[in-house]
Write a structure and sequence with these properties.
Length: 373
């Protein structure tokens, strides 16, 4: 099996991740719920992971690092905190349903700043035109469907100039592309733990630089005498029992990433993406969504065949041992922008653990599948 669906979940992880999960399940209780050893071990685990994330993303106050259940949970908190019914909200043309659906639920007036794929200047111009009068902006750092690296620093600067708070969806960049929270000056940055950060499913992180409003209410182990949520972070946003085992595993994933040079992972994934694009570029009737030179593209390559539907092609690849994802990838806005909304695409996405030999083999399998049609 060759696993090339890392934009959905990083299946291959450092072995220390699973070891840490197992240890936590057998030795740790719940942080803030007691002074006994299992509770204190859990508290230390959660604090150590929080501190590690704060250091890695350059968050000045570790309390502003919030543990969530996934990026969607974090984005809901961010949108709930900044957006009210009727507010004009600007989003990129490459957003995920975890952005568009919460905005719809809040009754926001959403304006999509559409721009050509892999075109940095067009993306900036679209935001420049759309921002006046906006109450909030939301932008993916990297498109999950096409790997387009949006110019997030420049977009943040435009938002700052317009006095518009920015929410960043770092689901496809966190852990691969260097991200400096203090330098970016966004209101919120949301990310999953189970993708580029190489942690278990059911983990996520929200970096906060704005007033916050919870979407979950309940016990926090603090201020227990009142029926109001605490007014301080992280407790205000971390109601209920932490996923301690997941956080223990996440800490090991982050530790692995920190051990690498800052741009090593994204360089490796881009190399694999370029190798696959070169391998399959000559296949008849196969369209590649590829930025020549990889200047504005991460380790994600979407393709579309003129001879077979994307879902059927992915199924055939899966039966041959190549794990990919097909369809709209929960990002219809991106496919509307690019013009692939009818069929979607087949997406190949890479991790630090994939190799050139795996990519070469996947290309051969794709050729074989399409040649047999």
């Amino acid at each position: 099996m060759v696993y090339l669906d890392c934009a959905a979940t990083s299946l291959q992880k450092p072995q220390e991740v699973s070891y840490a999960v197992s240890r936590a399940m057998s030795t740790m209780a719940s942080p803030g719920r007691g002074c006994h050893k299992p509770a204190m071990l859990a508290a230390d685990c959660v604090l150590n992971c929080r501190m590690m994330l704060a250091s890695y993303f350059n968050v000045p106050e570790p309390e502003s690092v919030i543990f969530t259940y996934n990026a969607t949970h974090g984005l809901n908190i961010a949108i709930n905190s900044l957006v009210s019914e009727g507010d004009r909200v600007v989003i990129s043309g490459y957003e995920h349903n975890s952005v568009t659906r919460p905005l719809k639920a809040r009754g926001a007036d959403v304006h999509v700043a559409r721009s050509e794929l892999f075109n940095k200047s067009a993306a900036l111009e679209a935001f420049r035109k759309a921002l006046p009068g906006a109450k909030c902006a939301v932008c993916s750092h990297v498109s999950n469907a096409f790997g387009f690296i949006l110019p997030i620093r420049e977009i943040s600067a435009l938002c700052h100039q317009s006095g518009v708070p920015l929410i960043v969806d770092a689901s496809q960049s966190a852990g691969a592309i260097p991200l400096d929270f203090a330098q970016l000056d966004a209101a919120f940055i949301a990310m999953p733990g189970h993708k580029g950060l190489l942690g278990p499913q059911g983990t996520g992180v929200l970096l906060c630089n704005s007033e916050v409003f919870p979407v979950l209410y309940g016990g926090t182990g603090s201020n227990s005498a009142t029926n109001l949520m605490p007014d301080f972070l992280p407790d205000r946003l971390e109601a209920g029992t932490h996923n301690v085992a997941g956080i223990a595993g996440l800490a090991q994933g982050v530790k692995f990433i920190i051990s690498k040079p800052s741009d090593a992972i994204v360089k490796h994934e881009k190399k694999l993406c370029s190798a696959l694009a070169e391998k399959i570029s000559g296949i008849p009737d196969l369209k590649l969504f590829y930025d020549e030179g990889m200047n504005m593209q991460s380790g994600v390559l979407s393709v579309m065949s003129g001879r077979i539907g994307s879902d059927e092609l992915a199924e055939k690849l899966g039966k041959a041992g190549i794990c990919v994802r097909a369809g709209l990838h929960c990002a219809p806005t991106a496919h509307e922008t690019v013009g692939t909304i009818e069929e979607g695409t087949v997406r190949f996405s890479f991790s630090p653990f994939n190799t050139l030999s795996e990519v070469d083999y996947a290309g051969d399998v794709l050729k074989k599948v399409l040649n047999t049609l």
